[in-house]
Specification:
The termini are close together. 38% of the residues lie in helices and 16% in strands. A hairpin with a 5-residue loop joins strand 4 and strand 5. A 6-stranded parallel β-sheet has the order 3-2-1-7-8-9, with helices on both faces. It folds into 2 domains: 162 residues, Rossmann fold; 85 residues, SIR2/SIRT2 'Small Domain' (2-Layer Sandwich). The chain contains 11 helices and 9 strands.
């Protein structure tokens, strides 16, 4: 067995309260390209910031249209090995919660209860009204854009502005999600930072907060990060390969961690 995995297994097994912090790298094996690398989604579809989105009907139509193009290009995807491994650790009581920068809804699809998932950048599987919060499905948004060539979608309940339920550049971070995430970072004794470049703040400050609050920090990512110097363990390897050790068919995550000792 890989010595790094043995160390990781011991740390997970010995933790009182482990929290997973995940980024785009956990979802790339599922067929979702990352955003920042060459050939990433932002090289094709430059993001529209929040102020621009709010500035006009045309900008809102363009922002929603670009999002739907990305959705169509990515297609139907399901959880990968990393998502399933984390779900197993949550089910086994080894990980108490998942804090994620991702908007792909794959942690929910892996079977983790929504109340155990904190989405820092929102959720891209639906849209919502910025005024009253009413949920609107993306298929409804697509139909509106096809049938109303001049107007941006308006909430069917209050007539307010409809936007994907994601956090855009320049948009305020979700207050309650950040509050919960900070509280977990301060109280956990192990944080697993998985598949994140740890470059996007304020989200990337959470592993730092956890470390400064006394938690051990593990960083699992294909490439080095600027926070590696703070970590107790760094594994630069394929995320699915690393976490698949916690995802052996027919065995619980707890049994796997014990067998690795």
């Amino acid at each position: 067995m890989n010595p790094s995995f043995e160390t990781l297994a011991r740390m997970v097994d010995g933790a009182r309260d482990a929290v997973a912090f995940t980024g785009a790298g956990i979802s790339t094996e599922c067929g979702i390209p990352d955003f920042r690398s060459p050939g990433g989604l932002w090289t094709k579809y430059r993001p529209i910031d929040f102020d621009t989105f709010m500035s006009s009907q045309a900008a809102r139509r363009e922002g929603l249209t670009r999002f739907l193009r990305i959705r169509a290009e990515v297609g139907e995807v399901g959880p990968g090995r990393g998502h399933r491994a984390i779900a197993g650790l949550v089910a086994a009581g080894k990980v108490s919660a998942v804090i994620t920068q991702n908007i792909d809804n794959l942690h929910q699809a892996s079977g983790i209860a929504p109340e155990r998932i904190i989405e820092l950048h929102g959720n891209g599987s639906y849209a919502h009204c910025l005024d009253c919060g009413t949920r609107h499905e993306l298929d409804w948004v697509a139909r509106w854009l096809a049938e109303e060539p001049e107007r941006a979608p308006a909430c069917t309940r209050c007539g307010g502005i409809v936007k994907t339920a994601t956090i855009s550049f320049g948009q305020a971070m979700p207050v309650e999600a950040m509050r919960r995430a900070q509280a977990m970072a301060e109280s956990c004794d192990l944080m697993l930072a998985i598949g994140s470049s740890l470059q996007v703040y304020p989200a990337a400050g959470l592993p730092v907060l956890a470390r400064r609050s006394g938690a051990r920090l593990v960083i699992i990512n294909r490439e080095p990060t600027e926070l590696d110097r703070l970590a107790d363990l760094v594994i630069n390897d394929d995320i699915g390969d690393v976490l698949d050790g916690f995802n052996v068919r027919g065995e619980s995550a707890a049994r796997i961690t014990r067998s690795a000792l």
